[in-house]
Amino acid sequence: MQKTFSVSYFREEKCSLGVSLFLFYFLFLPCFIFMLCHFISFHFYKITLNLKEVLNIKINKFKKSSNSDLYNENIPQGKYLIIDEKGEQLGVFDQKEALKLSEQKEIDIVVVNADASPMVARLMNYQKHRYNQQKKLREAKKKTQIIVLKEIRLNPTIDKNDLNTKIKQAQKFLKQGDKVKVSMRFRGRMINNFQLGETVFKQVMQDLKNLSQIETPLKLQGNQLTAVLSPLK
């Protein structure tokens, strides 16, 4: 028997198909996209977080601490040759034994050679040790400090305000560790005012004596009076 389809049947099928497409495009598809985006973003966040933690671990591992000393609870696992306060060797201990010994003697334990085998640690007052280290660094820095020769120029008829400004400049240079060359040039007939210029010069030297010592004494070369001052040690 041949099946016949009415117009109303096709209309119902068309309407049903339209409803299905509407639900798919405007309900199911947006929900699916939203869930997919949420899934991707969540896992991307976890991957990023894990990567950040890994990078932080690597950075912290190689980052130099401002205080690189290994002492007390910071000493790593391993064997230690322990030296007491008098410099005598007490023997080889593991980390726990070394810390226990430190507690018994009520003194700090500091790793002084982490590259040796076994590592070398010493019983000492850590704060005093740290102070001595910083003191040595300051002294070494002073020895390697580059000394610069600065210059202030005067003239025999300089007024009081300008003279005070020059003296303050020289004081600043000396305080920062630089040498100071003081010079005065006599132009033309100013050489006739040599005694006046010498008086000004000596006043400057007097005002700077608390910060300096004479390295090159006052001398006249041609028409120029000069002296070199260095900071007090």
TrEMBL record:
Single biological process term from Gene Ontology: ribosome disassembly
Q: What keywords would UniProt list here?
A: Initiation factor, Membrane, Protein biosynthesis, Transmembrane, Transmembrane helix
Q: Which residues form the Translation initiation factor 3 N-terminal domain?
A: 72-140
Q: Which GO terms describe its cellular component?
A: cytosol; membrane
Q: Where is the Translation initiation factor 3 C-terminal domain?
A: 148-231
Instruction: Give one GO term, molecular function aspect.
Output: translation initiation factor activity
- What are the TM regions of this chain, as residue ranges? 21-45
Keyword DNA-binding on this protein?
no
Name of one Pfam family that matches: IF3_N
- Give the source's domain of life in one word: Bacteria
Family affiliation: Belongs to the IF-3 family.
This protein is called Translation initiation factor IF-3
Species name: Rapeseed phyllody phytoplasma
